[in-house]
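User: Hey, quick favor. My workstation is busy. Could you predict this chain's structure for me?
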Amino acid sequence: MDLTMPHPGISDDFNDASQLFQAIMDNMGDSVYFKDRQCRLMRVSRRLANSLGYENPEDLIGKTDTDLFGQEFGEKTRLEEMRIMETGQPIIGLVECFNRPDGTKNWTSSTKHPLRKKNGEIYGLFGITREINELKQIENDLQFLATHDVLTSLPNRFLLFDRLDQAIFRAQRYGTMIAVLFIDLDNFKKINDTCGHAAGDLLLVQIAGILQKHVRELDTVARIGGDEFVILMESIKTQDEVVQIADRIVRDINKGIDLYPTKPEVTVSIGISLYPHHGTTSNRLLGSADDAMYQAKKNKNTYEVFSMIGDDLHKN
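Assistant: No problem, here it is.
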């Protein structure tokens, strides 16, 4: 139906195109706007005005995205919109993010089409923008769940291997050393059986906090399953630096962890491997640290550095 032409048999109220257009602009859930060839706003919906902190849509007339969102964002959208008006090619579902005045991020999906006169000349564009913050949050949550341990919020095995691969690449490029510490709780099953699984979960969370306390911001602490944790340390200068950290972790955890109303004896065994001395791939380094951990398990409550002697279990 052409809203610009009256139609017989239809109420005059519905033949008023401007009235219908204004109803759309005032009540759409998405933000609607029209811009001229200079990318200035010529008409905006009430939704858009309110989302930007304006009560009256008329207050936005003549403003550009630079006026509203700053130079960097405004220049980026200006170039995109100039391309639309010069080529006549629309943009469909463009995902963007800008900072609100209160500092929070606002994610949107926009579709922009050129506006044409009857002779085909382009005189501006119109856009429809939908906020997708909830969808973006769901996406971020799913990404987090895919790469992190649910109980401790530490990186999981998948993310650990990704970071280890990247660390090896940087170490090869800059000639630096990497350390991998494989950490396993001693007698964790006994604690679970005597104190309950809820207490066991709380213990794992507290162990995660202790491990994070002993490493630098650039290091990674991961939980790779059960009571097994791994620490990845980059830019290590000496083996002694790593040994000192392992020693502090063993002593700190050995002090005991309060799981009210009990305080079970908690100890850990730690295996250490170093790049490039004990492997040059992620699998080899983790396997070497795992072997060293099992050596430490023989005595418990201690750490061992991987020894190449008699090693024929792993290959680079």
